[in-house]
Amino acid sequence: MTDAEQHEAPRPARLVLVGPQGSGKGTQAERIAERFRIAAISTGDVFRQNIKDETDLGRQVKSIIDAGDLVSDALTFEVVRDRLTQPDAATGFLLDGFPRNLGQLGLLDTYLDEREAPLTAVLELGVPRAVSMDRLMRRAFEQGRTDDTEEAIANRLSIYERETAPILEVYRDHGLVDSIDGVGSLDEVTERIFSALAARGIVPAAV
Ligand code: AMP
């Protein structure tokens, strides 16, 4: 690293994490958010919390989520936009599980363009289908999530391949994608993510 590079201000962490369910996204999202002190925004978590609290939103989305289908783009984006305007998302954010299709990608792009705060990287966490299926079945057993039935899991993985994978093509065209091998220990995968971000000049701000 040259002197000039060392003194350059780090680039903000405005990140999207993409990967099939069972890729370990949730855990990695927490680690990234902690390191960069940014908000980790998981649309799935927000929906689950609302279902638990029996809010209007929760009642609206419960059967959709239990079937493993996608909640409407408009409703999902409302959740994300609300969250992005909260103070802890001002310096950066990590979106986990959003955008999930091209429609949501368009909504997010327009919104971030208006704020003049575009994404700085998209992390693609890759694991073979057999590995994610296996991890999801194990989680179903351990956590008893109501959408972790074998049928709903298979549905979610198909939706991922059909609707979510194409967003990576768009982000790739914008030079934003880092593909991370998601097979390995949690620490190994975290290290791969941090190095990929560092290579883009995205490092934690000095305290
Ligand atoms: P996740 O925890 O990301 O696996 O999300 C659990 C469920 O919440 C998904 O299977 C969908 O039913 C719903 N969900 C989460 N994020 C989105 C999104 N971006 N768009 C539509 N539905 C979503």
Q: What would you note in describing this structure?
A:
The chain is an alpha/beta fold. 57% of the residues lie in helices and 12% in strands. The protein contains nine helices and five strands; from the N terminus they run αβαβαααβαβααβα. The chain has helices spanning 3-7, 25-36, 43-52, 56-67, 73-84, 102-114, 129-143, 150-173, 186-199; strands at residues 14-18, 39-42, 93-96, 121-126, 177-181. The radius of gyration is 17 Å and the shape is globular. 31% of the residues are buried. Adenosine monophosphate is lined by residues 21, 43-44, 47, 64-65, 68-71, 76, 97-98, 100, 104, 147, 156.
Distinct bound molecules: adenosine monophosphate
**Strand residues, percent:** 5-15%
The run of helices and strands is HEHEHHHEHEHHEH
Counting helices, strands and paired strands, the structural category is alpha/beta
Rg on CA atoms, Å: 17 Å
Largest sheet: 5 strands, parallel
| CATH domain class name of the domain at 9-40 and 91-198 | Alpha Beta
CATH superfamily of the domain at 9-40 and 91-198: P-loop containing nucleotide triphosphate hydrolases
Query: What is the mean pLDDT?
Result: 91
Morphology: globular
Please state how the strands of the largest beta sheet are arranged side by side: 2-3-1-4-5
Total DSSP E strands: 5
Span of the ends, CA to CA: 21 Å
- Low-pLDDT runs of 5+ residues are none
Secondary structure: helix percent: 55-70%
Number of helical segments with 4 or more residues: 9
Q: Which architecture of the domain at 9-40 and 91-198 does the CATH hierarchy give at level 2?
A: 3-Layer(aba) Sandwich
- The CATH topology of the domain at 9-40 and 91-198, please? Rossmann fold
